[in-house]
Amino acid sequence: MNRITILIADDEPEIADLIALHLKKEGYHCITVHNGQDAIQAVHTQPVDLAILDIMMPKFDGYEVTRQIREQYYMPIIFLSAKASDLDKIEGLVRGADDYITKPFNPMEMVARVNAHLRRTMQLAQMAAASKPIIEVAGLIIDPEQRSVSLYGKTVDLTPKEFDILYLMARHPKKVFSAENIFEQVWGEEYFEGGNTVMVHIRTLRKKLGEDKDKFIKTVWGVGYTLHA
C-alpha cells in the first residue's frame, strides 16, 4: 500500500514540527519546509497527496505556491494563517485553497480536517475509476475521469472543489441543492458554518464559466442552487 505524503510549509519550524508530529501518529509521511520556494520544489520532485501551507512565507507566499500547484496538480490544499477575519478566509478560498485554519489551532482539529479531505479525495478517485460518462450541458463538457471542464471548446481551469460542485450538480440536472447538501457531499463533513464556503466557491465557479444572468448555475432563492441548460 502506497504511503500518503503530506507537505507542511510554515516559516515557523516549531509549528511545522507540531503538525508533523500529530500527522505521523496517524501514519502519514510528512515533508516539512519553511518557505514557498522549497514547497514548490517538494511538490515537483515527489508525490504529495495534501499540502498545508502557511500564507505568510518567504520566497513565495502561500497564495503564489497555491497558484503554481494548481497549474498541474489537484491535491487538497489547507491554508494555515494568523489572519482570522471572514474576508481573509474568503480570500484564501478564492485563491484556490480547499480549507482555511486559523492560528492558534487545535492539532486534533487539523488531523480531523486532513483525514476528511483525504477521505473525500480517495472517494472521488474511486468514482472516476468506475468510468463515469462525460456530461455535456449546452456547450459545457465535464469529463469526470480527466477531471477536466471545457466550455465551447475552451478549457476552464477549476480548483478541485469547484469541479466537485459542478460535477455534483451536473449529475442531477435541475435538482436544487442547498448549501448544506453541497457542503456535506463535496467536503464530506457535517455542515456547521459552511454556507459562506459554498457561496464563495459558487461565485468563483460562475465567474470562471463566464456566467451571464446565471446561465448554468441558477440560484433558487431561499432554497439553494441548481444546474440548468
From TrEMBL:
Residues 132-229 bind DNA. It comes from the Bacteria. Residues 5-118 form the Response regulatory domain. The keyword Phosphoprotein applies. Gene3D superfamilies: 3.40.50.2300, 6.10.250.690, Winged helix-like DNA-binding domain superfamily/Winged helix DNA-binding domain. Residues 132-229 form the OmpR/PhoB-type domain. The modification 4-aspartylphosphate is found at D54. Its main location: cytoplasm. It is found in: Cytoplasm. One of its GO terms (cellular component) is cytosol. This is DNA-binding response regulator. It comes from Paenibacillus azoreducens. The lineage of its organism: Bacteria, Bacillati, Bacillota, Bacilli, Bacillales.
